[in-house]
Amino acid sequence: MEDPPPPPPPEPEPEPAAAAAFPQRDVEPSPPPPRRRLLLRLRCAVQHYEWGRRGDASLVARLAAQDPDPARPYAELWMGTHPSGPSTLLDDGELLGDWLARNPDALGPAVAARWGGDLPFLSKVLSVAKALSIQAHPDKKLAEVLHALRPSTYKDDNHKPEMAIAITEFRALCGFASIEELKDILRTVPEVEGLVGHEDAGKLMSMKEYDGSSAVKSSLQSAFAKLMTASKDMVSEAISKLISRLNIESKIRTLTDKEQLVLSLERQYQEDVGVLAAPFFNYVKLSPGEALYIGANEPHAYLSGECIECMATSDNVVRAGLTPKYRDVQTLCSMLTYKQGFPEILRGVPVQPHVRRYTPPFDEFEVDFCLVPPGELVVISPVPSPSIFLVMTGEGELQADSQSDGEKAKEGDVFFVPAYTEVKLSTCGPESMKLYRAGVNSRSFN
């Protein structure tokens, strides 16, 4: 049997003298990494279109916290990254779009991948004093064509589905009326029938509700194009006759809502073919809290009231009436779907206590209405997309994730919130706080 190996030599002792000779100095701790900004206050662009409400009669002016010029229209407040009215960070003036380019994780991976590192939605507040143009927004394919052909008029290549949520009583024209209603117009408004022409009017009059959609579309498109392309002299004469007749008849009977609308539009846009076209569309009246969504290639015109509007990030508008701006009648008449029937009205669906959601059939956006009662805490769960919050009324606080210091919030404050951020909402004082949150449609992540 072999002898066991010898034990290993002992470890050498440390040399304390070295430590004594060179005493360790206090080292400043490294500064912590900068904390990610979870609530960005925004300064948002105001658009002074002529149809807007003036001075402090405009909700847009009040929200923008300006000292409004009583003679100037304040039509739209834009919250987003569109270059025609980009939002900036309130503290340093950096464009929100530039901040997102440096912080793409704020969009969430799904949004960043699908929409090219930018916000896919644009949120607005509208204060409408007089009718906007009869218009439609192109689908994606047409938007690309129009932008390539006329970039000065059609400023981007995106489509623009949109939704309007009424804050006050809100009036709009949207989509073509039913066949039976159109027949009634041709029977009772000879001034319109005369411009459409007997042949096209006759085709529509012979249509049935159950006729093939292609036949109805063809006849309606032909009749509408005839009306919209009538000469200025013919339009002027027809409007003059129509207004004179309605003024006389108003003394012996109550005018219909559409007849009263025609008189109102004529006072705003004299000798405009849109006055004669208005009866062709559905006349929609929204109460506060009701919403209307509008797809690509659908005719519409907002008439009066104030609303929250959300849409895909675009400013493409094809106009054909009720406007002093550029009209592209041929494009509008060729692009429309000519669908008929009254549009769907959304009233929002409760998704949790104090939060109601408006979900249109478009991937780019949805809107939540948040009502925060005094003394209550409303927690908005993290979502995989960024959000923009607008404080409509009241005062309170927004707190992001577990951060102890919240942000004070009052009427008109706008905040950008990155994806996957929990937001706690609370009030200050005796009044409820009302907010709107715009974000990417939750269904698009399913």
TrEMBL record:
Q: Which GO terms describe its molecular function?
A: mannose-6-phosphate isomerase activity; zinc ion binding
Recorded GO CC terms: cytosol
* Alphabetical list of InterPro entries matching this protein: Man6P_Isoase-1 (IPR001250), Mannose-6-P_Isomerase (IPR016305), Pmannose_isomerase-type1_CS (IPR018050), PMI_typeI_C (IPR046456), PMI_typeI_cat (IPR046457), PMI_typeI_hel (IPR046458), RmlC-like_jellyroll (IPR014710), RmlC_Cupin_sf (IPR011051)
Q: Which UniProt keywords apply?
A: Isomerase, Metal-binding, Zinc
Q: Where is the composition biased (Pro residues)?
A: 1-11
Q: Which cofactor does it need?
A: Zn(2+)
What general EC class does the enzyme of this chain belong to? isomerase
Q: How is the cofactor bound?
A: Binds 1 zinc ion per subunit.
Q: What is its EC number?
A: 5.3.1.8
Q: What does the entry list as the binding residues for Zn(2+)?
A: 135, 137, 162, 300
* CDD domains according to UniProt: cupin_PMI_type_I_N (cd07011)
Work out whether the entry's keyword set contains Metal-binding. yes
Superkingdom classification of source? Eukaryota
Region of interest: Disordered:
1-35
Q: Pathway of this protein?
A: Nucleotide-sugar biosynthesis; GDP-alpha-D-mannose biosynthesis; alpha-D-mannose 1-phosphate from D-fructose 6-phosphate: step 1/2
Where would I find the Phosphomannose isomerase type I catalytic domain in this sequence? 39-176
Give all residue intervals belonging to the Phosphomannose isomerase type I C-terminal domain: 358-403
Q: Which GO terms describe its biological process?
A: carbohydrate metabolic process; GDP-mannose biosynthetic process; response to cadmium ion; response to L-ascorbic acid; response to zinc ion
Describe the location of the Phosphomannose isomerase type I helical insertion domain by residue ranges.
195-281
Any idea which residues are catalytic in this one? 319
* Catalytic activity, reaction form: D-mannose 6-phosphate = D-fructose 6-phosphate
- Which PROSITE patterns does the entry mention? PMI_I_1, PMI_I_2
Coiled coil region boundaries: none
Question: What's the family?
Answer: Belongs to the mannose-6-phosphate isomerase type 1 family.
Give the protein name, as stated in the record.
Answer: Mannose-6-phosphate isomerase
**Which species?**
Panicum miliaceum (Proso millet)
